């Protein structure tokens, strides 16, 4: 059985987060402890390099290195003993994924007198769980929440299911395929099901060519665009449904918002990452048109990388508080 992860230090409030810093409860503050990671996962040693500052790191342009690094982080910090994904699937940056969950926990706490609801009575829906199953793994380990992970790809569901079963998390993480890619909630959610949260990392490119161009731009910014070196076409990997869709991020989130209005009483807080700040005005307009009663835009950062998510609900503050009382939180 995997060892239970150690608890992080006493948390600060989200208001104390410095610009460019991870959420205070995020376990990945500061530099990575490579000696500790290697001690826990010896396979990582072969991928460790020295960066230009003489510090230990890995080559983030090497998909094999990123996968082993993620596996080591999950094992050391979250007690996930078994984690693997098929070649060419999205290999997520774990600190940023954890931040999304911590800020969602803060959102739930707003209606619970500042106390974060924990345990299996809290149920979250991960739209586009992917082969990596990262949000359910982190959310279950950090807060004890139960998850439903949904995806349109049979191969992604199969990979996520293998991870869940290998870590004996079947009672905490359920996986379900969305059979109709034209819909998000419709045909997926069952009558009477209720979720405290829905989260989503939408495909943010409009085409494969745009995704490839974005990766080349990233390698150039990192100083890795060496014509003598063969780099992966897509940074961190990724299949079509993970990285692009018709209309890109803006179209996907707009569809998510439209459908969410039909399930206003089954989900307390809907949310989605929005990678491009230029898409925010359109998102806000779609939310207003859908009739969302409360909207939050939460900025996140890791070093120079800026990100954000938008959360919305169709319930009044009184209805949200009653929701928590009914669920015994």
TrEMBL record:
It holds the Pfam family Methyltransf_10. One of its GO terms (molecular function) is 23S rRNA (adenine(1618)-N(6))-methyltransferase activity. Keywords: Cytoplasm, Methyltransferase, rRNA processing, S-adenosyl-L-methionine, Transferase. Its EC number is 2.1.1.181. CDD domains: AdoMet_MTases. Specifically methylates the adenine in position 1618 of 23S rRNA. This is Ribosomal RNA large subunit methyltransferase F. It comes from Pseudomonas benzenivorans.
């Amino acid at each position: 059985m995997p060892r239970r992860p150690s608890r992080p230090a006493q948390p600060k409030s989200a208001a104390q987060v410095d610009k460019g810093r991870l959420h205070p409860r995020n376990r990945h503050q500061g530099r990575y402890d490579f000696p500790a990671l290697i001690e826990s996962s010896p396979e990582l040693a072969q991928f460790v390099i020295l960066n230009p500052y003489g510090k230990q790191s890995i080559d983030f342009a090497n998909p094999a290195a990123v996968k082993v690094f993620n596996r080591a982080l999950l094992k050391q910090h979250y007690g996930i003993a078994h984690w693997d994904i098929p070649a060419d699937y999205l290999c997520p940056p774990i600190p940023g994924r954890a931040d999304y969950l911590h800020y969602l926990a803060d959102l739930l706490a707003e209606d619970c007198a500042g106390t974060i609801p924990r345990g299996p009575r809290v149920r979250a829906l991960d739209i586009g769980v992917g082969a990596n199953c990262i949000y359910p793994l982190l959310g279950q380990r950090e807060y004890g929440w139960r998850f439903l992970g949904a995806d349109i790809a049979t191969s992604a569901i199969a990979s996520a299911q293998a991870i869940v079963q290998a870590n004996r998390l079947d009672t905490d993480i359920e996986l379900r395929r969305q059979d109709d890619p034209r819909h998000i909630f419709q045909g997926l959610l069952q009558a009477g099901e209720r979720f405290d949260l829905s989260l989503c990392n939408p495909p943010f490119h409009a085409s494969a060519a745009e995704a490839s161009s974005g990766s080349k731009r990233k390698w150039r910014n990192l100083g890795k665009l060496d014509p003598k070196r063969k780099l992966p076409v897509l940074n961190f990997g990724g299949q079509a449904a993970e990285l692009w869709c018709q209309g890109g991020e803006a179209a996907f989130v707009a569809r998510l918002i439209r459908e969410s209005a039909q399930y206003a009483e089954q989900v307390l807080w809907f949310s989605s990452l929005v990678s491009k700040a230029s898409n925010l005005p359109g998102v806000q307009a779609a939310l207003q048109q859908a009739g969302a009663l409360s909207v939050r835009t939460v900025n996140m950062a890791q070093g120079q990388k800026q990100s954000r998510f938008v959360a919305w609900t169709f319930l009044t503050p009184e209805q949200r508080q009653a929701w928590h009382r009914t669920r015994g939180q």
